[in-house]
Each structure stands twice: as C-alpha cells, then as structure tokens.
Please model this.
Amino acid sequence: MSSNQPSHDDDHLVATEDLAPTVHGEKAVDLATGPARPGVPKKDPILVADHITRSFGGVHAVDVDHVEIPRHAITALIGPNGAGKTTLFNLLSGFDRPDTGEWEFNGRSLAGIPAWKAARRGQVRTFQLTKVLNRLTVLDSMKLGASKQKGESLLFSVLPFTWRAQEKQIEERALVLLEKFRLLDKKDDYAAALSGGQRKLLEMARALMTDPEFVLLDEPMAGVNPALVQSLLDHVVNLKREGMTVLFVEHDMHMVRHIADWVVVMAEGRVVAEGPPQEVMKDEAVVDAYLGSHLDQDIGVITGRYDEEGNRIP
Amino acid sequence: MDWGQILNNTLSFMLSTETIGFMLAALGLAIHFGYAGLLNFGMAGFMAIGAYGYAISILSFGFPWWAAMGVSIAGAVVFAVLLGIPTLRLRADYLAIVTIAAAEIVRLLFQTQLFDEWTNSADGLGGYHASFRDANPLPAGSFTLGPWSYTSDQWWARLFGLVLVAVAVLLVWLIMRSPWGRVLKGIREDEDAVRSLGKNVFAYKMQALVLGGVLGSLGGVVIALPSAVIPQYYLPSLTFFVWTALLLGGAATIFGPVLGAVIYWALMAFLSGVLPAMAGEGWLPMTETQAGYLRYVLVGLALMLLVAFRPQGLLGNKKEMTFVK
Model:
C-alpha cells in the first residue's frame, strides 16, 4: 500500500485503521524476565539505565531509578507533556548531562560520553524539532551521515584519491536509502526546500547512514501528513526487521499500539509503568498519569486528533 | 580633475601588497564564516600576530625571512587554539564578542611600552626587509607590466604574495569539496545534527579556526613585507574592512574573497582620489581632507546594503541565498 499512496490526499480523511503499518513484522513478545512493572529486567537489554536524575532549577525533570530497553524490539516512550521524555532522550544520547546516573549501551558505560561518541558506538537519534542541514543538498546531507569516512580527516581531504572510492560507495548507499524513503527525485535540492514531512524522512534516512544498532526517534510522526505517517510507520517497523532496536517518543496512542512491542510510560520524570502496549493501556498508573479522567475515551480523541468515531481530524 | 592619475592610482592599488594580504585574510574569513559559520571578528589580531611575528623574529632574533614566516604561522595556531578552547563550545555570537576583544588585547600588547625592547611600542617596527630582499630571484631594476610599474623588490613581494594566494586558493578548494568540507558546512547549518551523526564538532571547528587564522596571519605578513609594522594599523576597523571584502566577493566561495579584495581596494583607491577632487571642484560642501574620509562612510553603507540585498556576494550561489536564515 505504501507504494500506491494517493499523492494528494490532504482532503482525504485517513481512518484510524489505515494507519497500521503495511509491513507486518512479528511483534516481539516475551521481552521481560518477569511480570510487567516499572524497571523490570529484560532478557536481552540493549540499554540499561540506573538512577538517572536531571533537574532544572529545582524541578526534577527526570528521576529514573532503573529502566532497560529490549534489543531487537520497538519500544515506545509515552507520557504527558513535561513527563521528561525528551530530557531522558537528551541524556541518553549525550546531548545533556545528568546530575546523577549510570547507563550502559551494549554492556559499555555511556555515562559522561559526548553525543558524537555515543553516535559512533551505534546509537543514533533524531530530533523533535527536525534538524535538517538547510544549505546542503539532500544527497550531501545523506553522505554526511556515513561514519568512518577517510576524507573527513583534514590530512586526507586534500588527497582526493585516498577517499574517492569510499565516497562512491557512500553515494550508492545514500541513493538506495533515498529511493526507499522516496526522496530520490529531491537529491539535488537543498534540504531547506523540503516539506515538513520530507524533512522527517530525510532526518531518519540520514540517521540510518551511520549504520546504527539503536535508533532513538523523538516524535517521528509529529506534524507529518497522514499519507507520510503511513510510510514513516513502515520505515520504523522495517528498522526492526533489519535488526535494529528502536526507542521512540510518541503522543499518538494509535501508532504506539500498532507498532510498539513494549511501552514505557513516564510521568513527572519517573517511569510509572511499562509493559506490552495492550497491558500498559489498562495499567492504573498510566490511567492516572496520562489518561486522567478521560479513561473511557480514546487518547486520539482527547488530543483532538480523532473524532469519536475514530476518524482523523485534519 | 585629473582622471588619468585617479585611474592610475586605482589600478596600481589592485596589485598592492595590501590587496594581496587582504585576499589571504578574506580567504581565511571565508573558512571561518562562509564554511564553518564561525563569526570571527578578530581577524586584525591574527594579522597583527603574523606581521609582528615576522618582524620581531628577524629584528630581535635574527631569523631568516622564511623561518620568521614559520613563527607567524605558529603564532596564529597558538592564538587560534587559545581562542577556541573556551569559546568554540559556546554559541556563535559569543565567539564574535570574544574574538573582537582578543584582537584588541593583541594589538594593545604590541603597543604597550612594556615590551618596547621587541615591539618598539607605538612607533612600530621597520627595517626588517634585507633577508626577504636577498632572496629576490628577479634581476635588479624596474619593470612595467601594463599599468603596473615597480622595482624588482616590489615585484618580488607581490609575486611571492600571489603565489601564497594561489596555494591558499588551491588548498581551500580541495578541502571544501572533500568530505571534510561537507562536515564543516553541516556544522554551519546545524551543529547538533552533525554531532548526532557522530562527528566531533569541536575538533572540526578548531581545525577551521586554526586554518583560517593561519591564512589571516600570512595576510598580515604579506602586507608587512615591503612596508612597516605599526600597531595602529590593526584596529578593529581592519577586521571590518576584510569582512567587507569577503562579503563583496561571496562568503561561501573560493574566488569571492580574492575578487572581493581586489574590488574593495580598487574602490577605496578610486574614492580616495575622486572624492577630494570633487571637493576641490566645489561639488561637495566640504574640504578635500574631509571628502577623503567620506570613503569610509560609503564603505560602511556599501557593507550594509550588501548584507541586506546581496548576502551571497558577487560570486555566491543565488539558491543558497534564498535560504539565508
């Protein structure tokens, strides 16, 4: 279906059911070692975090005692606004330093490691407010993403013959990814000329150029038109199929339910619940923290993105 | 009005060592600002370090001219690293404030009585030319090429400067079309995005700061080659003249700084001839001396108009300009 989307469907209401990913990966089950509860150990965690705190002027933005992210699965990080999701993201990816805390990625400590080193270890992130490189072409942005480039050292940069072959390989990889993300015909445009949704796609594709093991997506669907949401969902599911681990922040419960294997719920800086999506939605703490008094209503309705019948409000 | 003399003077300035030095300094600024997005408002400091490093090495320590030039380069590297360590982690605007202050500190250190023994304080340095002139491969005498007529030593300084420019242009062209240059341009656009892709942004910015600073320092050396080193020359206004030359040609271009320097100095020479002449004819309501200074007003005005209406400069990419933040 993602291959024959209508190209102009701004006036077309996409029903909730249509938002399911069209590629159906097996949902990963049985990820935890015990019954679902906050901080439950995972059978094969890719990331283990302990005692992470970060406060801004007396406000405890993040206060996570223990959390593990399962490998080869899609984990959703949800919670109301101000729950500390993005702050946790920034801490885990090295863009911010915690007041206290230790965390391990693939068994190696990442605490205190700058963002670029974390990325080199195979943990790449995207941003809630998309960061595209405006005055670089789409293809250049992609090529920039590739890691271990010889020509990126000043010494070798003046000797084109030392990096030309690698550059060609990188370009080929970039073109394959651009094709997948349907940006191939934009490859020579400046990134600034892309639409909001295309920027999200470019950012994700660019992140994949680093050949990551663990992908952190901060609200990948925010502000994206429904037709693109569909293909973004497919891309996220595909990441798992290709062996990557995904952690994403999202407000839209429909998407969380459709693609997440595991859900971690944050509220006021703490992990208040975690578990498989269907179970978490029933959890008392989640209901209190997130759904509040609108327990019987769909989250999409509360956020104003869906009407009572489950139709998306444009 | 003597048009012939004004034009002659204008043409002669297009090949002055000052113009050639500006080419190098503006090219350094192109690396800083055009490619890496570093707002360096302290280019005069780098130029002063170049000129003083060269003159002091020869006068006080008896270095040959080429070793003195090495001292200038080393001085610029040290200055760039000292500037970069505290400021490159900050936002670009803070770098601008720190660089302008640092350049003034450098100038005042060269001007103070404290180091009179080496710097000759406010009187500046001269008479360091023998070593460079001894290396002159040109035959003695005077040569004329088109509108340019110079002595052998004057030609030697210009030719040497132009060779430096050619090497610098080639180098900048090579690195900016390489993956290294791509990372730098990425940093200019959004350094967090580049950081998230596993690049050591700080190291790249430092390399860019050092590289551009060295070019600025060499520009200072070339300007000082046939003349003298006077501390008052390295005022902050010098930095802004280099900026004008850069923005005139195009900040994110290779040949823009070269072209910009030529046009800037041709314009300055033309105005400094034409404005007093106009005042002398009674066309301007001021004395000839006042009219001469009017050129700085016009340059300031040109800089403002340029930034507002043609930010990409003469050689810049129009498409890139469309997306100026």
Notes: Chain B touches chain A at residues 171, 174-175, 177-183, 185-186, 188-190, 192-201, 207, 211, 319-320, 322-323, 325 (CB under 8 Å).
